[in-house]
Amino acid sequence: MGFLASLFKSKRSEIHDLPDRRLMTDAYLPAFAALKGRLLFVGCRGYNRGYYRLLEQHGAEAWTTDIDPRSARFGHRTRHRTGDICEADSLFADLRFDGIVCNGVLGYGVDSEAQQVRALNALAAIMPPGAHLLIGWNTDKISDPIAAGLTTAHFTPAPFAGQPSRVRFDAVTHVYDHLVRN
User: Which of 12, 17, 28, 101 has its CA 20 to 30 A from that of 168?
Assistant: First the structure.
């Protein structure tokens, strides 16, 4: 293994060892997979490439999206679309999703409250009532989107995967909010 490959493998390992990533792989992804429906994973990086296979092992149909065309190589090999999540309603006008994981997007490109509202509206448009949305965001990147009321038009917080609707971590600034489409 070359130096760069070794470095990237080490970085992936560090990320997967974080408590928020362990919760993602141990609880949230299996619970999303158990829905056995069409699922969208927003934001593609090398360290989450295995997530789509995990979802599909249990009967889900995984799709991916990222705004960066270079990230397509980290997305699902046959069900990936490149585009702005703030325009998900146009990007996926032909599809509806039973679950969406939007982790590390708010605060990493979708930063302002106006952008977040656009993204949440667009995601709501491609979800039927009762569909699940998991938002992962960082307290050091954006203000709390739930406390700001950005989700109330289309979503209700709800427990999921044996977890409360909101999960915070002592060791990292990451927060997960699980919501259900009204």
Answer: 12
